[in-house]
Design brief:
Radius of gyration: 27 Å
Shape: globular
Strand content: 5-15%
Number of strands: 15
Strand order of the largest sheet: 6-11-10-7-9-8
């Protein structure tokens, strides 16, 4: 099921209905604590066992397991694999095992965890206890691995839609990316929570500092920070509103914050799976959200270098290159992005989504055969047997910009000097990037320089085949499309928006009082429903989205009073 699609309900409801304790395995401490807090707030008997607890706290939870006083217990993979804990479980009444983030069991997945392999023994150790494995990101290879490595051969496989229709997918090429990011946040998400992903720790710090200076409430998160600071930053992001987290991919696994309105990538992720999981942290409440990304040729070169320089076996490297190439095909696509994403995961999609940049503003393509030949000829004439030149140098030759380096190498004397003066610098960079992706140009990994290959020579000697490329179009300063969550909901009247804001204030006061994230009290979706329907009685309040008996009794009357005041 997709992120936010309700996977937890698939084991939480059986756990409440069946006799005994359900053991839920999760590698994500933050998610465990979050889900247990939410369950307790619904009156459900749930606890977690992980490294954050003291010895006395662990002992208390273990005693409750033995006495069958709990519905669910969340545990870390390491905890479940200990002899001591397995011995405790053998003495307890168990209802089921739920293995979350099950893609971690596959070495072909994007987040392999070797401790997951040991879970195959659960079948022999607890033959009568049902097991369920869940994930949001598994292609066909990973799904096969999950079944095999968790010893689930006779289990049924359920594949829900991977579609997240509330997320708008936007991909742009890098052009002063800090300013691009700033423009995006200012015009689309000025008062929203969001996550900005960067490839390195240093870049995280730089971007966080940049956004802070622009007046946003921003926190950094990466593995180089001490645990205490990381924990404080994560808790602030979860418990406060309109906070932006700038992070490496170390952040986000297990973040169950439903009101993240955007996820921005300032650098390419490693695979479609990683991209899908990271973008899936946006809009978990079903309200509109954006998955925004910028990329350039440097990203592609860097990720290919990471793969080649790793100590992985050749078979793993080949697979990682395939996965990266699938992601590159996605970002360079001229058709509906949602269709490409869904088809990658084996889901057929016949219609345009009308909620991605390619559907809303179809890219312009043109016959670029002549331009391609000019670029390839320039690279061929400039390179020597020992080395080639980078993109910037080749572009300067093409547009006829005789800087010091070009004069030193006498490249202003080449027949290709100034041959592309009628094409902009940005368009030439776009052409070269696309030719690299299409295999007409090689990258010398050691020097990040452009080199010709057999496909280049075929194009130059024989004319080759027709080359159709995307035309680079300068971004216009778009008008403010969506200032906040409200604009794409049924709330249009100013009094409704004012009521929504008052309900948010009330929710925040309860959240601070009870030391929990505001969305656990009520989601934005529930507050919007209240502001829209304006319930007058407890019975009408009970019909509001996300208001069950427990929350109705605990908060219903106080929220009704605020609604009544504005009605």
């Amino acid at each position: 099921m997709p992120t936010g699609g309700g996977k937890s309900l698939c084991f939480q409801i059986p756990a409440i209905c069946l006799e005994g304790v359900a053991i839920v395995v999760s590698p994500l401490i933050a998610l465990m604590q979050d889900q247990v807090t939410a369950l307790k707030n619904l009156g459900i008997k749930a606890e977690f066992l992980n490294s954050s607890l003291s010895f006395a706290e662990k002992k208390l939870v273990e005693d409750k397991i033995l006495k069958n006083e709990l519905d669910l217990v969340y545990v870390s993979p390491e905890k479940l694999n200990t002899e001591e804990f397995l011995s405790l479980l053998k003495q307890s009444k168990l209802s089921l095992f739920a293995i979350d983030e099950a893609h971690c069991v596959s070495q072909w997945g994007h987040n392999f965890r070797p401790e997951y392999i040991k879970f195959s023994a659960l079948k022999e150790t607890f033959p009568k206890v049902p097991r369920i494995a869940l994930t949001a990101t598994a292609d066909e290879i990973t799904r096969t691995d999950i079944i095999k490595n968790l010893n689930l051969e006779k289990g049924k496989v359920f594949v829900s839609s991977f579609d997240r229709p509330n997320i708008e997918y936007i991909v742009k090429t890098k052009d002063k990316e800090q300013q691009q990011l700033l423009q995006f946040i200012k015009t689309e998400h000025k008062n929203d929570s969001g996550i900005v992903y960067c490839i390195s720790r240093k870049r995280v710090e730089t971007i966080a500092e940049f956004l802070k200076k622009e007046g946003f409430d921003v926190l950094p998160y990466h593995a180089g920070m001490d645990n205490k600071t990381r924990t404080i930053n994560q808790e602030r992001f979860i418990k406060e509103e309109a906070v932006i987290m700038v992070a490496t991919i170390a952040f986000g696994m297990g973040i169950d914050k439903p009101d993240v309105r955007f996820v921005a990538h300032l650098d390419l992720p490693k695979s479609v799976e990683a991209y899908y999981q990271e973008t899936g942290r946006a809009g978990r409440d079903g309200l509109p959200a954006d998955a925004w990304m910028v990329y350039g040729l440097k990203d592609i070169v860097q990720l290919r270098q990471f793969i080649e320089n790793s100590e992985s076996p050749q078979s793993q490297k080949r697979l990682e290159h395939q996965k990266l190439n699938s992601l590159i095909a996605y970002v360079e696509a001229i058709h509906c992005r949602r269709t490409i994403l869904l088809e990658y995961f084996g889901e057929e999609s016949k219609h345009k989504c009308n909620n991605c940049d390619n559907c809303n503003e179809p890219p312009v393509t043109y016959d670029a055969t002549i331009d391609a030949q000019k670029a390839l000829s320039c690279i061929y004439r400039a390179q020597t047997e020992r080395y080639g030149f980078g993109v910037g140098h080749i572009v300067n030759i093409l547009i006829g910009k005789a800087d010091e380096k070009i004069r030193n190498f006498q490249h202003d004397k080449l027949s290709t000097f100034g041959i592309g003066a009628d094409v902009s610098d940005a368009q030439w960079r776009s052409i070269i990037r696309q030719l690299v992706i299409l295999g007409y140009i090689d990258i010398d990994m050691q020097y990040s320089s452009l080199r010709t290959n057999a496909k280049t020579m075929k194009m130059l000697k024989d004319g080759g085949e027709k080359v159709e490329l995307r035309k680079y179009i300068l971004e216009s300063k778009t008008k403010n499309k969506r200032n906040n969550t409200i604009n794409k909901t049924s709330l249009t009247a100013s009094e409704d928006i004012n009521l929504f804001n008052e309900l948010k204030k009330l929710r925040l006061s309860f959240a601070k009082q009870e030391n929990m994230p505001p969305y656990i009290i009520f989601s934005d979706k529930s507050l919007i429903d209240m502001a829209d329907k304006k319930p007058k009685t407890m019975k009408e309040m009970a019909s509001i989205s996300g208001v069950g008996d427990y929350k109705l009794n605990k908060y219903g009357m106080v929220f009704l009073e605020v609604v009544e005041k504005y009605s």
